[in-house]
Amino acid sequence: MTRNIILRDHVRAGILDVAATVLAERGTSVSMTDIAQAAGVARATLYRYFPNRDALLYALYEAALSDLTRRLNDARLDSVPIEEAVARMTRATIAATGRYRALGLFEKAPREARRMERQLAAPLRAVFERGAASGAFRRDMPVHTLAELYFSLLEGVVSRVIRHRLSVEEASAYATTLFLSGALAAPPAPPPTATSTATSAGSTTASSTAVPGAVPGAVPSAGSPSSG
Amino acid sequence: MTRNIILRDHVRAGILDVAATVLAERGTSVSMTDIAQAAGVARATLYRYFPNRDALLYALYEAALSDLTRRLNDARLDSVPIEEAVARMTRATIAATGRYRALGLFEKAPREARRMERQLAAPLRAVFERGAASGAFRRDMPVHTLAELYFSLLEGVVSRVIRHRLSVEEASAYATTLFLSGALAAPPAPPPTATSTATSAGSTTASSTAVPGAVPGAVPSAGSPSSG
Amino acid sequence: MTRNIILRDHVRAGILDVAATVLAERGTSVSMTDIAQAAGVARATLYRYFPNRDALLYALYEAALSDLTRRLNDARLDSVPIEEAVARMTRATIAATGRYRALGLFEKAPREARRMERQLAAPLRAVFERGAASGAFRRDMPVHTLAELYFSLLEGVVSRVIRHRLSVEEASAYATTLFLSGALAAPPAPPPTATSTATSAGSTTASSTAVPGAVPGAVPSAGSPSSG
Amino acid sequence: MTRNIILRDHVRAGILDVAATVLAERGTSVSMTDIAQAAGVARATLYRYFPNRDALLYALYEAALSDLTRRLNDARLDSVPIEEAVARMTRATIAATGRYRALGLFEKAPREARRMERQLAAPLRAVFERGAASGAFRRDMPVHTLAELYFSLLEGVVSRVIRHRLSVEEASAYATTLFLSGALAAPPAPPPTATSTATSAGSTTASSTAVPGAVPGAVPSAGSPSSG
DNA sequence: CATGAATGAGCCTTCATTCAT
DNA sequence: AATGAATGAAGGCTCATTCAT
């Protein structure tokens, strides 16, 4: 009796696995026929496990989220320095979402899943909050925006992982590095002047001035002393 | 005579405009019916202007690319410092591609458009080459990868512009700033004082080695004693 | 005033002419667009002359029938021997229907045209009646059937004329010859037996016996003496 | 398992049967909707059996051709006298093509079917060759033309069979008789008695010259004193 | 009057889904 | 429980027809 249930769960997981792969490879346009065929079952059988297409997608969503949740829990983000936390969560996210990207994770989740996602996003947001609070992050842009930029970067990188333009390893490392440190080479030797340590926004020396139009007009407090 | 042609072109442009919006908002899955409806014309009329769906998508491509080309030409990227060049090309790209993102610009363009796109990408790549050659860009990752990361960031940001989570201005400024300067606050020259190891890790100066688990070489969580 | 009407009629005739050609060449599936294009006018103009597709087809039908009627009248079928009459009506029909064959003349005429057609068929039927009455035609099959066979042959031949497999001349001559004389070479020298002149059915000597299964079983009075 | 396949084949054959009827009756313009409706299945079901319209038509071709091939083989055309051979092949062709006439057999077959058709036409042509070689056929027209006339006659007759104007039996018998013997009553050897010029003109014996305006050479109304 | 533009209806095809075995 | 078969709905496209210039 229980055996069957167990077996059934395994089959279900298998189908889900195949579906994730197919979807990631060929996009959201794959049909139920495609998925069933890839999974080696009849279409009708597929419908036994997932009453309809949305259910399948939703299940994939759940799988992706639980996968990510597990990885993030394992990462113990709050027990390590902010840089390490970012590195870990980047890796975890890329690894977990790579297979599910067709779902548009972080992007166009089904209405019902929004709640789960927000709940899941918590640990990620926490890292940002901590980074902001600890002064580790620049203060010339709202932490919320910083997070958005981070997710933006992740999405793009994930899509490149899927298209085999980057490996998970590369993608994780590069994305972390870019996000944390920035692209501009640091100035050779900054004159040991003021205690600008706190308002590190303009850090890369010429940055706040050398990057004209980057934070144009009234963009939030670029390196202003009021932040702190 | 000419009037009609002009009018026709305007109508065509109008339809294209609507199509871009609808596609950007609802994804590539929108049907010709949807587009025609959104444009307020009958489906058959839509087909008068674009003989088939692909023709419509291709026209959108052309529009996006020519728009972007014009903006990049206007930007005179090679006549300004690298930072300004990045700022300008970021703004230009976001402004131009925002409406066409559903097409997956830089991603899955139709065969024929690939050529145009590559040709168009030239000025962008040129900026990266210049940045690398002039030593303005960090040297711990290949310029090619840097470009990929930049495009990744852009894509994500563009999608947020479309979903009205960011304005074009904000998106441009923030993306530029993040890409150029980085997210971590980095003191100009951290006096070898305190246990700043944790926070100052991502110092842009020695970034390539200071960011744990980030740099290509010794990729996963390197240098972080807490990882384990 | 009248000028215009005259001109209009000419244009109309021209269109009809082109339409006939196009229809004959490419079949009934040609669109109004095709016809308008071939005629060098706009589709809307075509509709000025013929309110709808059926009207055009019907007009073509009328043209074909009146053409045929004229030719048959000119042929004075009842003033010449039966053989000559057949020859003439064959030629007239092939010449007249060649251009209109797509209409399925004698085959799938529009309901309303049936009447006209039947009226037109009169002179043709008359020839058969005369041939039967005069004893010129074989008596082992009903004259009605003979007529059907004749029309069958004509249809096929006409289709070949249209496809340029036969010229009008060839087609007329061959069809007439075959229909009148038959395909089997006549026996060298028939024993000068009886006065079988009247019941000429078995004419080609061995025909009624040599053509086994041709008029099989109870097929109408094959050379039987009861016919007369 | 096998049951299903068998059943499926039967259903397929049934659909094909219905399709043949509908096509024969209403012409090639019938839509898939029409066919599905006539067959009593949903359009989508129709597509289960035939992936597209062309596939259906092609299947009909195959059916018609294989049917005809079988019949012709059974007829053993080369083992019987020419007259019997013609009688058999006429019957076989009419019986086999009657249901498929809308396909325009011998007329506008799809490219791939041309080959099959030509291969199939071989036995028919062989009969004509034999007839010509043996001197059984008249010599005043090329055997190729004779064949064309024969097919012309067949086509027309077949169309009448479809429209229920003739039964297969009647059509076969009459067509054979007409083709073989001719329509004109021809006295075995007209004693040079009376003014039989008019009636006996088409005498099969000297037919080639006797039929006015019929024979290729001196085509139009030749030898008829009344023509002018 | 001639014409370009607009449109409703219909066709071919595919897909997600249900049903009976 | 698994599956082949059946189907309604929708998508892309064309065509005959109407309208306003």
Automatic annotation (TrEMBL), chains A, B, C, D:
Ranges for domain HTH tetR-type come to: 9-68
- Keywords assigned by UniProt, alphabetized: DNA-binding, Transcription, Transcription regulation
Question: PROSITE patterns under this entry?
Answer: HTH_TETR_2 (PS50977)
Q: From the UniProt annotation, which stretches of this protein bind DNA?
A: 31-50
Q: Name one GO molecular function term.
A: transcription cis-regulatory region binding
Task: Give start-end positions of Low complexity composition bias.
Answer: 194-228
Q: Where is this region: Disordered?
A: 187-228
InterPro entries noted in UniProt: Homeodomain-like_sf, HTH-type_TetR-like_transc_reg, HTH_TetR, Tet_transcr_reg_TetR-rel_C_sf
Question: Sorted alphabetically, which SUPFAM superfamilies does this protein's record hold?
Answer: Homeodomain-like (SSF46689), Tetracyclin repressor-like, C-terminal domain (SSF48498)
Q: Which Gene3D superfamilies does the protein's record reference?
A: Tetracycline Repressor, domain 2 (1.10.357.10)
| Protein name as annotated | TetR family transcriptional regulator
